[in-house]
Amino acid sequence: MKVDIEQRILAVNDELAEANRRLFAEHGVFVLDLMASPGAGKTSTILATIAALRDRYSIAVIEGDIASKVDAEKVRAHGIPAVQINTGGACHLESAMVRRAVETLDLGEIDLIIIENVGNLVCPSDFDLGESAKVIILSVPEGHDKPYKYPNIFQVSEAVILNKYDTLSVFDFDETEFREVVRSLNGQVPVFPMSATTGDGVAAWAEWLAARIDAARDGDAS
Fold this sequence. Notes:
Mean pLDDT: 93
CATH class: Alpha Beta
Order of helices and strands: HEHEHEHEEHHEHEH
Distance between the termini: 37 Å
Low-confidence stretches: none
Strand content: 15-25%
Largest sheet: 7 strands, parallel
Helix content: 40-55%
CATH architecture: 3-Layer(aba) Sandwich
């Protein structure tokens, strides 16, 4: 049956995800799984985060995409190690893919790994990678109704980045309604309005992340 097959796939994935999580904890590495639609600004958010935190932490990036290595090359151009994962058509990353990528990195020299998941608001939320936190990026042009349509990804995220906030006056985006729906799905999850390309709002997001990284280095990633 389809349900049985899906359950087996998720069970195998979750088992390896726990092994990944133990490995990251052993080395005090904080692992961030960034999820978003195509075009929401995942790569620009990663680059803005690197710029804000690179003087405080050693950072590496795992780039997930169906094809190409464009995003990994953008990250490497900033002097940051980046491992490209091409899924060959799969709409999400899985824990085994992340494990293979991590094996090419020196975890003893890394504080933060940022995983750019495949652009999708459905599948990535179902797959545990062994990450320390999942975070969703929603861009203003996508509309304030996305939490209605894709509730699960907002429910599993520990923070929400509202990107391209500088375009708020251009689009019919009801921020009050958006925040209310997000709150109904995920309690007091923080929402960070920002523009990754201009840098506005990046500092608040970076400080939230820094606190989490410090906790992981101290052996308390909760």
